Amino acid sequence: MTAQGQSLSSDDYCQMDFRGKLLIIDSNLGDQDVERLKFLCRDHISSRSLERSNSAVDIFDQLMTEELLSEEDTFFLAELLYTIKQNSLLRHLHYTKEQVACLLPTRRKVSLFRNLLYELSEDISSENLKGMTFLLRESIPRVQMTSLSLLSYLEKQDQIDEDNLTLLEDVCKKIAPNLMRKIEKYKREKASQVVTPPSAEETESLPQGKEELFSPSDIKISLELQEGSQQDEHAGSNGETATPVSVELLGASVETLTSKSSTKETAVYRMDRNHRGFCVVVNNHRFTSMSERPGTHKDAECLRRVFEWLGFSVHVYVDVTKVHLMQVLQKYQSHPGHADGDCFVFCVLTHGEFGAIYSSDGDLIPIREILSHFTAQQCPGLAHKPKLFFIQACQGEEIQPSVSIEADAVNPELKAPLLKDSIPVEADFLLGLATVPGYVSFRHVKEGSWYIQSLYNHLKDLVPREDILSILTAVNNDVSRQVDKRGSKKQMPQPAFTLRKKVVFPVPQEELLL
After folding, report:
1. 314 and 356 share one domain
2. How far is CA 118 from CA 338, 349, 498, in A?
3. Domain annotation covers residue 377
């Protein structure tokens, strides 16, 4: 019980567990490690705050204050531990040395220059240090210095910086020529980090106008799927084929994936900023008043794995109530990290109805409400950047039957609602629904859902050859070919988008670890 007589919430216990892990890491770090961490954090924490930090815990507190460390995102600390070769402590953050090495090229926060100075300090022997201090005696204080404090002093006195290594090169050439290889490597890496400035097109507003849209064609090819499939919702007894869905967004050019393709060459969104961006996964398995969703953890793990491989900082939230979901949305709506990111991904795995998803405590939340947090007005850091949303949930209770060729609905009077109530009226959004409005989606109790598993497989197989819309077209085709073990139930995903350019993820640095 707390001092106010209230029980600690599950979030409070999770936070205590997280801080407990930080205490364990702190207890395994010595004074030299703390000095190394302080040096590596100089670009992110003020000098005054670092001077007051006497332990690793003090540094962790500063990182959390600067929103560089949290229970959901521990990668910066993992990077720091990896850099100072404390790899055995990575397990407390649920990372391995190999995973950190794989993610570093796209998620590093320690600058190339600071990393160079740290590596040089580790390679300067005691004899080399004596020679360097002798050469620099007129410009450094007459106090005992380590190699790290020497380089740090030169930086503080503006005698060296990321664009001026002349003094450092002169010293290394005279005392430790072998260190020149690291300096030359740094110069090459820095030269390759040329950031392309935003094009004029990137800041243009979405042109007004509407396009003629076409619904997905009915692909009805039956294949066997292994046993164990189940619906995310109880379906109605009478199956009906999906009626065509047209999309209008009050003047914004919104398309489904089966719109007419243009022969005009399409521009590509930038993917060369400091980091790829955030990927949020809401994974609801247990509900207070609804059935559980076995197999969903397989989906969540696949999403985490593939989007980390693509360079995203992935945060998974399990069994999210409505209040918690609103907190998550507010957090990422105002997250300062969007400014340096390329893209944003938000995935929801849960029960649902048309145009809405269920929280773990049974509240129905409109999809539009979720997306509205990330418009340019509400989230300026994501303006002109692609925002991708993937929803694995039923969108109704009807079941799509498996037939040879059937273009007409069973009930021609039934009109599927428009998707305009789900997507914001502005550019740069993509909404991928597991199924067309009004119908159920399917999930294997062990292998995960048809839609998410297909998305996972096609991302890892087609990046970087294809853009995201081409990948989702392949997902549509794949899912449409799947049927349950009796051959009577099918599913067709429904993407809609207001993207102005192609979304092409760069070549991942490493192979995806399966």
Report:
1. yes
2. 28, 43, 45
3. yes
